């Protein structure tokens, strides 16, 4: 996946591609080669239009900022202005999504580890992640983003046992494990994207405990230990 992303990065830089802010997303016009690379790298989704010669892709705020800020391969224009700098984009995206700083830190954390990150709204989580392209493999984790700060939206989830039970049960029914990413701001404000360097991420997985599976696993481990002892 890292090789494909490098190819996409090079292609966007060489073509001097621009994106355009559109409320809670970013649209960009791309050529046929970039359509293929965006699909392989799993960024955004194609948008159907009546234009025959122009292909449009829609990026989420996290995807667009990752290409612009982390990979330095995309420029983004405002409504009636030229290219936005990192600070201007940061404040715009925060205004559209209050949880953007924590969500972006979680998104970039997973992307930097070569996970493919897609929206998890269909499964009641923030993201779902894949080891490879979604056409090739099943997603392994459903991701929820929490924060160590007093964010009412982020920290209002998984506070009671029923929330944990419902989430793990739903994800378990589609063969996924709940991955909780705790974004620690470490006392830093979110007034600038420079704060991201001081944020840290703690990973935890939560699964439903099955007595039957545990008993079978313990029995298997005991048998294996007995065989090793006899040998």
Note down, in words, how this protein is organized.
The chain is an alpha+beta fold. Helix content is 39%, strand content 23%. It has 7 helices and 10 strands. Helix 1 runs antiparallel to helix 2. The longest helix is centred in the last third of the chain and has 20 residues. It is globular and about 60 Å long. The model has no long low-confidence stretch (mean pLDDT 85).
User: Helix fraction?
Assistant: 25-40%
**Main β sheet profile:** 5 strands, mixed
Number of strands: 10
Shape: globular
**Class computed from helices, strands and strand pairing:** alpha+beta
Distance between the termini: 44 Å
Task: State the assembly state of the protein chains.
Answer: single chain
Please, how many helices? Answer: 7
Mean pLDDT: 85
Spatial strand order of the main sheet: 3-4-2-1-5
Strand and helix order: HEEHEEHEHHEEEHEEH
- Identify low-pLDDT runs: none
What does the radius of gyration come to?
A: 21 Å
Question: Percent of residues in beta strands?
Answer: 15-25%
Features:
single chain; 231 residues; alpha+beta; 5-stranded mixed beta sheet; 39% helix; globular
List the helices and strands and how they pair.
Elements: H1 2-15, E1 18-22, E2 25-30, H2 32-41, E3 45-47, E4 55-60, H3 61-70, E5 75-77, H4 86-96, H5 100-112, E6 116-119, E7 127-130, E8 141-147, H6 161-173, E9 177-184, E10 200-206, H7 211-230
Parallel strand pairs: 1-5, 8-9
Antiparallel strand pairs: 1-2, 2-4, 3-4, 6-7, 7-8, 9-10
Helix pairs in contact: 1-2, 3-4, 3-5
């Amino acid at each position: 996946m890292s090789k494909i992303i490098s190819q996409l990065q090079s292609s966007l830089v060489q073509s001097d591609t621009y994106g355009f802010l559109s409320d809670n997303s970013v649209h960009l016009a791309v050529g046929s080669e970039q359509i293929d690379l965006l699909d392989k790298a799993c960024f955004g989704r194609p948008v159907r239009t009546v234009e025959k010669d122009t292909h449009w892709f829609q990026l989420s705020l996290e995807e667009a900022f990752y290409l612009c800020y982390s990979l330095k391969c995309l420029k983004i224009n405002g409504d009636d202005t030229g290219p936005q700098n990192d600070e201007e984009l940061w404040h715009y995206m925060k205004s559209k999504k209050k949880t953007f700083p924590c969500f972006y830190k979680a998104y970039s954390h997973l992307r930097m580890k070569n996970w493919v990150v897609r929206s998890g709204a269909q499964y009641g989580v923030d993201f779902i992640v894949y080891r490879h392209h979604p056409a090739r493999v099943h997603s392994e984790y459903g991701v929820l983003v929490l924060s160590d700060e007093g964010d009412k939206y982020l920290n209002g989830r998984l506070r009671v046992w029923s929330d944990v039970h419902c989430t793990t049960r739903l994800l378990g029914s589609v063969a996924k494990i709940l991955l909780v990413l705790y974004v620690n701001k470490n006392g830093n404000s979110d007034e600038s994207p420079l704060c991201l360097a001081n944020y840290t991420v703690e990973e935890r997985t939560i699964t439903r405990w099955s007595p039957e599976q545990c008993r079978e696993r313990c029995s298997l481990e005991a048998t294996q230990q007995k065989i090793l002892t006899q040998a």
